[in-house]
Amino acid sequence: MSYSVEKISGNQVKIKFTVDQQKFEEAMKKAYLKIRSRVTIPGFRRGKAPRKLIENMYGESVFYDEAMDQLFPDVYSEAVDAEKIETVDRPELDEITQIGTGKDLEFSVKVYVRPEITLGDYKGLKADRYVHTVTDEEIQSRIDRDVEKATTTQDVTDRALEKGDVANLDYAGTVDGVAFAGGTAQGQTLEIGSGMFIPGFEDQMVGMNVGEEKDLKVTFPEKYQAEELAGKEAVFHVKLNGIQSKVKPALDDEFAADVSEFSTFEEYKADIAKKLQDQANENADTEVENTLIQAAVDASDCDIPAAMIDSELDVMMREMSMRMAYQGIRMEDFLRYTGQTMDQLKEGRRSEAQNRVKMQLVLEAIGKAENLEVSDEDVDKAVREEAEREGREYEEFKAGLNDRQKDYLRENAVLRKTVELIKSSAVITEKNESERIQAEDAVNAVNQAVSAVEQIAGDEAAEEEKGE
Questions:
Q1: Separation between Cα atoms, residue 79 and residue 287, nearest integer Å
Q2: What secondary structure does DSSP assign to 146-183, as a single string?
Q3: Contact 425, 296 (CB under 8 A)
Q4: I need a surface site. Which of 72, 162, 207, 277 has the fewest CB within 10 A?
Q5: CB 11 within 8 A of CB 116
Q6: Which of 127, 344, 139, 353 is nearest to 251 (CA)?
Q7: Which among 2, 151, 163, 144 has a CA at the least distance from the CA of 78?
Q8: What is the distance between the alpha carbons of residues 139 and 137, in angstroms, rounded to a whole number?
Q9: Mapping DSSP to helix (H, G, I), strand (E, B) and coil, where does residue 314 land?
């Protein structure tokens, strides 16, 4: 077998094969043995007719497709492996120029490969690093989360139900006097003012006393998950079984010791402020990296095969499905709620998938252009970081890695080094986040002004057309 490879575009090659007649004849024999049981010849039991007789009746081409199926995987793999061709899709038969008994088989295929990358500028790029200064409100909001965890409840017997209380209630709902599925419960707990129930339900409970019963009239939202109830008026007969009020802890040293490793409230608060600022700084660094990487990607050019984008879309859908599963949502339910098909969901994210593929290709191309390599220490660092992300012990995690996973972590280490190279040569300007807000407000004002002018021009044109 011989072959030749011809690059026909930046992302596709043509491979021409010549298979000697003896090898082709062996494939024809295998094709005959496989197909003969499917061919009917008068006077012969199925599967017993001689090959020559079948060829005389149907032509030897009856075996060609199967013979190609027998030959192709081996000859194709041999060429692709020998030439180190990085295919990204299944090959497509281009043409068969010669086939038949006593002849060498000659044919060609086309196959999409990893595209060539024309790199643009990736050194000396410019980016603004917007630094967010953590506010007192953000610190207090974080403290409030710990307060919520440490909050206890106590029974209330000397007053009526108020907003902020936790009510224990029984209820039975009807629409037009008929009970509906999911409209009845006993011993239900509900924080009044939380907005967990239908609008108006909680407000009408305020002022009720323990043991009191009351009919609440509400209207289901127009967009309600149970379509048969959407927009309909309902009556809920409610009985208040009990009231509990929330008891929040005092913000003092005792509280700090209960919810943290610190013995004083000031130390606890200072630690929260530091962690929030560290996170803000890390977010700013990540944003700068993303800006620089995207600039390098936008400056580069390549023709990405559709198969690579489709493959990335499949990865994105799996990632999305896993995230939703953690929240207890099935992909099938999400599609039904949003009125989309899987194909529509994918199509809406196609440009994102294309950018993700291009980003990977560009970073790999920069790494090769700069001859970047990683040491065992770099890979070991990547292993440690991955183990930490997964909450696993380093030694146990490392011992469980297979070759494919090790290669993946090594590739990630190279990509990390590539990003550091881009970043190290970049011109980064430190700015306060308020400057970005001002810039965005200015852009929005300009866009609104342009829209207003366009609207006026459109109205004037319409008036002129009426006059004519």
A1: 44
A2: HHHHH-EEEE--SS---TT-EEEEEEEEEETTEEEEEE
A3: no
A4: 207
A5: yes
A6: 139
A7: 2
A8: 5
A9: helix
